[in-house]
Amino acid sequence: MLGRLTIDTSESSSSFLKSLKNDIKGEVNDLIGDVARKLNIHDFYSAHLLDYCEGYFTPTAMANATVDPEKNVTRCSNHTAMFHFDPSSVIQKELKPGISLTDLRWPSAIKDAVRAVEIASKVMFVLYCVGVAATGLALVGAFPAVFSGGRMAALANNLLSLLAMLALGIASAIVSVIMSKIVNEVNKHGTDVGISATKGTTFLGMTWAATGLMFAAAIAWLYEFVAARRQQTRYVFEGKTGRY
Question: What whole-number distance in Å separates Cα of residue 124 and Cα of residue 167?
Answer without folding.
Answer: 9
